[in-house]
Predict the structure.
Amino acid sequence: MRASSDDEERVNALVLRVAVVVLTLALPAWILLSLVVVLGRARYERKRREPISNALSARTTERLVRRVSRRPRTEWGKWRRVAALIRLEQAHHPAMPRLILPVLADADTRIATAAIRTLGDNGDEWAIDLLISALRSGNGPRSRIAAELERLAPAPGPKLVPVLRDSNPAVRFWAATLLGPYPELGESSLIALTWDSDPNVRAAAVETLGSRSGAAVAAATLASLGDPEWFVRVHAARAAGHVLGAAAAPTITRLLADERWWVRTAAKDALRGLGTEAVPSLISVLTHEDPFARNGAAEVLQDVGFVDFLALDNPNSPLLERIYAAGGEKLREAAEARVESIAAEGVRAA
Amino acid sequence: MMLDVLGMIVLVCLGYFLLTNVVYVALVAVAAVENGVRRHEAASQDYDVLATSRFTIPVSVIVAAYDEETAIVSTVESLLALDYPEHEVIVVNDGSNDGTLERLRDAFELEPYEMFVRHVFTTEEVRAIYRSAARPSLVVVDKANGGKADALNAGLNVARFRYVCGVDADTVFDREALLKGMRLIVQDPARIIGVTSHLTIAEDPERSMAAPEGRRPIDRSPFVAYQHLDYLRAFFNNRLAWSRLGFMLCSVGAFQIWRRDVLEEVGGYSRTFTCEDIELTFRVHERFLRDGRDYEIHCLPDNVGTTEGPDTIRKLVAQRERWQRVIAETVWHYRGMWFNPRYRNVGLLGAPFYLVTEVLAPAIEVLAIVSLPIAIALGVFDPLVFGVMVVAIAFLNAALTACAILLDDLQSRTYRPRDLLRLLLLAPLDLVLYRPIIVWARLKGSWRFLRGDKAWHKFERNVRAEA
């Protein structure tokens, strides 16, 4: 009994000791953290009301330049360097071209991305050159470099044409993509790239050609519809719709029977874009042996309003029955429901 | 003998308390670093470029809706209004018994259309697909009831884009939610396969989100304010640290961005668990780590939206017991990952963390609730010592909560300063006013897990103020 009582005392003493230690640490911590929250927020609100100025004092500039020039070891230090770089950029510091280079070369893509964004904000000739050089060397994510170059359009356009001949297919891909907003530049190189050994480059080239016109462009786009890579055919289908208009409808309609789902989807999108001009071609595949081609054609006929037109104008038309047969019972039900609601609206309006 | 056992139980409870809180403090330290890095990163981000660039990856947003007539229109409105270059919104009406579909039909001028979609995932029957005459980027799928996972899978079948974002139908989103969620992914889409972000809670999310940043109120009801604190601790003290340590355990159902090919590879959302989000996150980890692949799943500190919080104890218990069940189901299902070095930090830290702090917690709590009063009554445990210990735990809890409030405020500066002060003052009373409800819910959830109950037990939606 004595031993048991000693044990109880020991347990109580241990728990009390732990409780006191925890309380001694936790209570001041709670008070301190609460003060940090309240005072920190008050300071933030005060600073927010002050007028914003990008001008830096000589001392601050010197401190920021020192921070950017240092080689930080920790991730935290790298972000402090980025913050300093952004402030110097906002103040248009003349040494920016030199200061930004090590940040742009950082192995951490998030740090390099921050430098890329800063170059985009700057937008000077040297910044464009650095962005194109980063695109070539792969410093930072190329998609982010491309986004910055695109927002600086039209300045980078002529500088992108030589990049189409880069030995790295990833660089050729981005150069071809970025030439989208420049219809007057690099046409022959882009047409040549539709035969590139890399399918990503072929896809980018045909996508960019989709915003252009002319016989050579049309021929290259049509040829790409038969590309062995499915994603090149996806871009080619969309491009052909834009370049050739209704003339491309029969060729694009053939892609409704493509072995790849995404090519069929792209063909449907392109045909939808052609509107009622695609109707004759679509009707011709309503009895196609491939069920995907049949229901794809019926779906596009529905989407361009042809089914509703027939259902309202001539509900007993054999053509409408053929479309329903190709599209299935749900297509018929949906069309009937739409027509019913159009009729009801007509009655209400009357 | 009994006295010895009671003494042992007191020591077990003390040991458990010390172990879990040392872990929590360590996680807060890691979370603080992660929050700082993300803050710098967000400050260096140009959302205007992301929002207008054609190189920003398009996203399909999928909303699973079951009996959501009170919230669905405002949720969809907020999703359609997202500031993002290209996104589609797919609402899946999962056989609702209320007027969810009618509300959508009226608000967005829906018309039935047949769409031939890929059937990658088998789901309950799709009854009809609607498109909006007014909002071309909206698609509504009406299907037979099959649960949230089934509804999300039906949405995946319709989704056109490479990334999908699963969201809850009771959440109102910030206009920049997708930009904030995708900002990391666009930098490294090959490696970052999943992202979730911080959500807050309110009784009436529309009203809360209508207030400008910096002046947003926190519900006056302490009941909702405590839930708000719970969310802050979960996101800022835990998930940010998990993210940094490479074991993000839960991409939350209210906002989860995934690369679609990953979902297709792992078989989509599972219908065999009570909830879909934690299990899916574990399944993705399990697959990628088993194959030794390089990948990242992250939780960001940016506030992307406000979700509806239960406004009664009954509703809160229903929600939290479900969460407890799914954690127990998932941790048990993936028990092969526990302490297994093949699964790196997920197996060595993440799964054991959930096991100790979530799955075993109700057992320890029952042990404490039953035995401590007996120990006090029998004189084994001094009531004064017990009282000091309770006060110590309350302030430790308050200090951890204050850390979460600080990290959130540093990140977003969203809330009114006076509301922050109120939260800080409420924090020490969390242990006695709010925690007992959660303990009860966890006990109930654990009991239902042991019985194999997998029902959703959806709580009724709060009554909203008239617009």
In short: The first strand of chain B starts at residue 59 and ends at 65. The mean pLDDT of chain B is 94. The two ends of chain B are 65 Å apart (CA to CA). The beta strands of chain B are 59-65, 87-94, 110-113, 126-132, 138-143, 163-168, 171-173, 192-202, 255-259, 296-308.
